[in-house]
Specification:
heterodimer, A: 172 residues, 5-stranded mixed sheet, 15% strand, B: 451 residues, alpha+beta, 2 domains, 16-stranded antiparallel beta barrel, 4 helices, 20% helix
Amino acid sequence: MWRLANILLFVIVALAPSGLDSYVGVVGSPATEPALAIIVNHANPVENFSYEDLRKIFLGERSHWPNGRRITLVMLDPSQPERKVVLRDIYGMSEKDLNNHFIQGVFSGEVFVSPKTLANSADVLKFVFNVPGAIGYVLASDVDSSVKVLRVDGRLPDDKDYRFRLGARPGN
Amino acid sequence: MFFSPRSVVGLSKDRLARRMVAEHIAPMALLLVVAMLMAGSVRAQQASVLDSDKQTIELLVRRIDQLEARIAQLESGKSPASGATATAAASPPAEPARAAQEPPTEPSEPQRADLSKTLLNIRGFGDITFHRDTAKGEHFDPGIGTLTGNTTSFSLGQLDMFVTSDISDRFKFLSEIVFEAGLDNSFGVDVERYLLQYSPSDYFNVSVGRYHTAIGYYNTAYHHSTWLQTTTGRPFLFAFEDSGGILPIHNVGVSATGLIPSGGLGLHYVAEVGNGRSSSSPNVEAVQNRVDENSGKSFNLALYVRPSAVRGLQAGFSVYHDHLTPIGLPNISENIFAVHAIFIRPSFEWLNETLLVRHALNGTSRVFETPGFYTQLSKRFGSYRPYFRYQYVNASDVEPVFPQVGLMHGPSFGLRYDPSESVTLKLQYDYTDLRHQTPINGVATQLGFTF
């Protein structure tokens, strides 16, 4: 039995998660990189989100806003660089992992609705403008007055320590 | 007064002519003039009508042109990726004043109102397995997680049609319809899940229908698809009822789930009330879909945490209680205690579950306790994921509800390869030690897919 336990312990140590999996997020990214704005409808009373809460929304682990309205997550097409930032900095997943996450989430009943995918920032702006419960992301430079930009951990895209930037790497 | 014939004639001619002019020609001329005037008026009116029609036609043609241009504009602006959601983006943000007068609507509402369109979302899962082991006769094969014969076989796995429907903002229908071949090679159809879900908030969601009982972790995480699972089959602890499993995997009743405000701890609850499993005879359907064999109901309560500080960790426990009424035996009080701790990240997986099934015969001191556990480890290297599982279950040979189970334990080693996002190929070796029987060696190769 001890031998089996030792073998098991060895296997666990050998298979322990690598540094990539334990990656948490981007802190202190250079402000010169284009920032990604998290946008919601103007009717949404939320102004600020913690990074963890935002992550839960993007994972589909939260289904309703505090005002009771259903959350509708909108993602950009996989070809868009903004999506790569979201996969890296919010999900910490590859496209395949994200796909599996939502298939399994819907299958197990934990995720109510999969994200909607739109082709470009203009479509995302239109969608968020029209759907009160929507949340999405676009480059901060693409944002117009039709939507509201959320603070994440109290910071806006113009702030120095804002998390989500194109090209920023973990630990930068 | 007398007139000469000539004079009379001459007079008559003049008078006649005047009279004719006065009595006939003038009116006729007048009539003709009037008629001509009227005809002119009619022609004028006809011309006016024609002009009006022409204007109308021109307007209509212009309108058609406008509509055709609008359709072309909409069609050109509708990208393939946006799909159904493109219809949602009706008002451009460049016109906020105009859009502000039109209350924004949810994108799918018009579709929901359109009864000519289906609300169904369908995803399918399937697998085909080639397997061989050293067992004799009909037995449980850990390689495929179900009952099998003793020959080398290609086996069609469950064809799982997973159907969901967003009925409204807060109601959703979910079902799993499974086509499965039995040991007699004939296909049967089972409705494995059949749920109407009401989701008013993150703190309270309720489902009514047939569900997978929230005992432990595996049963509500993987359901009927092998494609989602790392291994070729379910752990024996979570084998389906018709595959000789020891748990009430399915239940019919009400299930409530939700968050408990707990900050970063991420505490969740599950509370279930259902018919429980049948126990009157091993030959009856295990899941009491329509008629409960007794009026007592099963209860299950589960609590688990997902702390935000350790991403991928879930730990919790569940307590299940039911009252069984087997024929020829005293009634049985059934309690199932389960504890789990799992750690899953995209490239690493470590599942640990242990449980105890306790059957107490009422009116006697006889209690049968069946412990079991499994641990499963895997790590992904690109498209490859080697894995290891050790499982154990130890039931008494005279266990009143599942006497066929006995002792079963042993390791499984395998490799999962994902050549594409939707197809997976697995190779697994199993060694299973049994009480009073020769150990079983088995190999299985499985092709799993989703569509």
